[in-house]
């Protein structure tokens, strides 16, 4: 099955992988040269172009030296309550009119809090 048809699974597994390994979407963007908004599209499973999507997944898996289909089956982490973003309301509100920079900053802060939780929980 083409990777493009598995976007939601790949996005979910990519986000888990980043959190488990202490990366943020911003650090992934820097490692791969893929823009932060595009990383958001990948994680949300909303990439519009199949060919470009596969190229982006290739860049991501290359950055971590993983097989291209890795995120189709990565799921060795159980979702626990503390894995969930603690500030979902802050930038995901339906009535929010925040600009993109504010949304990115809030998302980065949320990612930092998630990474800090891993260190606190041990």
What is the N-to-C order of secondary-structure elements (H for helix, E for strand)? Answer: HHHHHH
Provide the low-confidence segments as ranges. Answer: 86-95
Q: Care to count the β-strands?
A: 0
Q: What's the CATH H-level superfamily name of the largest domain? A: lambda repressor-like DNA-binding domains
User: What is the beta-strand fraction?
Assistant: under 5%
The count of helical stretches stands at 6
Mean pLDDT across all residues, rounded? 81
In one word, what is the shape? globular
Assembly state of the chains shown: single chain
Q: Regarding CATH, which class of the largest domain?
A: Mainly Alpha
CATH architecture assignment of the largest domain: Orthogonal Bundle
The helicity comes to: 55-70%
CA gyration radius, whole angstroms: 14 Å
Number of domains: 2
Protein name: Helix-turn-helix transcriptional regulator
GO molecular function, one term: DNA binding
Domain HTH cro/C1-type: 21-71
InterPro entries: Cro/C1-type_HTH (IPR001387), Lambda_DNA-bd_dom_sf (IPR010982)
Question: How would you portray this structure in words?
Answer:
This protein is mostly helical and about 120 residues long. It is built from 6 helices and no strands. Helix 1 crosses helix 3 (about 35-45). The protein is globular. This is Helix-turn-helix transcriptional regulator.
Question: Briefly, what is this?
Answer:
The chain is mainly α and 122 residues long. It folds into 2 domains: 3-72, 434 Repressor (Amino-terminal Domain); 81-121, no CATH class. 59% of the residues lie in helices and 0% in strands.
């Amino acid at each position: 099955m083409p990777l493009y048809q598995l976007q939601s699974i790949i996005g979910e597994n990519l986000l888990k992988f980043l959190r488990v390994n202490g990366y943020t979407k911003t650090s992934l963007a820097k490692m791969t040269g893929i823009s932060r908004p595009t990383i958001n599209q990948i994680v949300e499973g909303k990439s519009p172009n199949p060919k470009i999507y596969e190229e982006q997944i290739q860049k991501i898996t290359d950055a971590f030296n993983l097989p291209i289909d890795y995120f189709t089956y990565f799921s060795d982490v159980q979702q626990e309550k503390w894995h969930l973003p603690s500030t979902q309301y802050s930038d995901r509100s339906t009535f929010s009119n925040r600009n993109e920079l504010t949304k990115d900053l809030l998302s980065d802060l949320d990612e930092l809090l998630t990474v800090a939780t891993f260190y606190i929980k041990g």
